[in-house]
Amino acid sequence: MAVRQLIRRSVRQAGATFFHYSGLRSAAALVRRRWAGGRRVLILGYHRVVDDLRRELQRSIPAALISTGTFRRQLEAAAAAGYEFASLDRAVDVITGQRPAKKDLIVITFDDGYRDIYLHAYPILKLMGIPAILYLPATLIGTQQRFDHDRLYQALCVARRREERIHNGLPPSAVSLLAPVLKGRKTVSQTVDDFIAQQSSELLHQVTEELCRSLGDELGNSSVGGEIMSWPEARRMSSDGFQFGAHTLRHVVLTWEGPTRIEREIVGSKELIERELGTRVEHFSYCNGWYSEQIVRCLVRHGFRSAVTTEDSLNRIGGDPFALKRKILHENFSIGPTGRYSRALTACHLDDVFGTFGIDRPVIGRRRQRISIPAAVETMRDRAEAENSHEIRGS
Question: Which of these, 115, 213, 110, 195, lies nearest to 159 by C-alpha position?
Fold first, then answer.
């Protein structure tokens, strides 16, 4: 662990210990409750719950991982902090003022439909009687495919270890992505995050394919991980009362897309999940947490009730159900500088002590709609077809 990171985690642990045992954490919770309008509605977001964290850290994005032990402890800490576990439907009713809540509510959500959720989180939640909602990238469910961001992360890890052997043969688009990693200016996780933030899903896929093709057998010898659940597994969870929402067809960041692609990803994912599970899909999760007015209008038009962001902020009673705030958690949220689970750190995160005192600031998910070159071409084609159709009807 880098010295700077160790110091930062030590300071945060010290602050959490002080806030937790001095009573300031409870005071912060009271303040947040008043700010929220009388009741807090905390939405937690997870990606993968794994049984062997050490193994997965060797091949997977760390910020997506939490061990089964830490996951269970976080749920227990939420109950101890006075939260009542609730379905997203109930939480949305409270936020929109349709029904009251006697206690603060907490909602458990999962993005991406990883099989780890079925294997490890599902049994824990079922045993503890806790509801949850899973947001699925519909066309990837039941396939052997992997997410481009997972494949890119693994490819960059392999490329960094074999710099001298593969660097000269890389295509230009992959070289520009790889350069900061090879020079030690960025971690692999930072590089993947920055690339997703700055480029479209189309280009992410293209660069991932190019880099994987350049690595060839070297990447093939590396273990993959990150399997996606099947439809029978999703149906079993659905039959046990777990809820499912849409997360586009192929995990597409919609703020980079034109209106036709936005419509197709939203409507297509909703219809496919409804057809496979036989349940209504009324909730959506924005990929990368980013959204725009255009995307929201499309969701409303097609009967959705809510959408979650990754903005780590307060959900206020009477707030916008299509900009629900969510705290995305992973292993390090609860692990102190010694590598052991910290009860104080977990409690402070759940009660958002660090946000209340201005130590943490949310990353805003609302973005200006940006259209990539392929999306722009598609939009121009759609407009031309619409104009031609209008001219034909007019004649």
Answer: 213
Contact 146, 205 (CB under 8 A): no
Phi-psi label, residue 165: left if phi above 0, alpha if psi -120 to 50, beta otherwise: alpha
Give yes or no for a contact between 181 and 156, defined as CB atoms under 8 angstroms apart: yes
Q: What is the pLDDT of residue 174?
A: 73
Do 315 and 42 contact (CB within 8 A), yes or no? yes
What does the alpha-carbon distance between residue 211 and residue 193 come to, in Å, rounded to a whole number? 17
The two most distant CA atoms of the chain are separated, in Å, by 78
How high is the pLDDT of residue 158? Answer: 86
The Cβ of residue 303 has, within 10 Å, a number of other Cβ atoms equal to 11
- Which helix (DSSP H) or strand (DSSP E) does residue 307 occupy? strand 306-308
Each residue's pLDDT tens digit, 270-283 = 999 999 999 999 99
Average pLDDT score over residue span 232-245: 98
The pLDDT tens digits for 330-374 are 999 999 999 999 999 999 999 999 998 888 889 999 999 987 655
- Can you point out the beta strands (E) in 56-187? 65-67, 84-85, 105-111, 133-136
Q: In the prediction, which pLDDT does 210 show?
A: 85
For domain 37-145+225-333, give the CATH number. Answer: 3.20.20.370
Over range 53-76, report the average pLDDT.
96
C-alpha–C-alpha distance, residues 100 and 32, integer Å:
17
How many Cβ atoms from other residues are within 10 Å of residue 159's Cβ?
25
Region of 241 (left: φ > 0; alpha: ψ -120 to 50; beta: rest) is left
pLDDT of the residue at 330: 96
Lookup result for tokens 């609302």: 366
Are the C-beta atoms of residues 359 and 15 closer than 8 Å to each other? Answer: yes
Across 57-112, where does the E strand assignment appear?
Answer: 65-67, 84-85, 105-111
CA dihedral 121, 123, 126, 130 (to 10 degrees): -20
pTM confidence score: 0.92
User: What does the domain layout of the chain look like in residue ranges?
Assistant: 37-145+225-333, 148-220
Categorize the per-residue pLDDT at 1 as very low, low, confident or very high, splitting at 50, 70 and 90.
Answer: very low
DSSP three-state, residue 235: helix
Residue 306 CA from chain centroid, whole number:
16
Task: Determine contact, residues 112/147, Cβ cutoff 8 Å.
Answer: yes
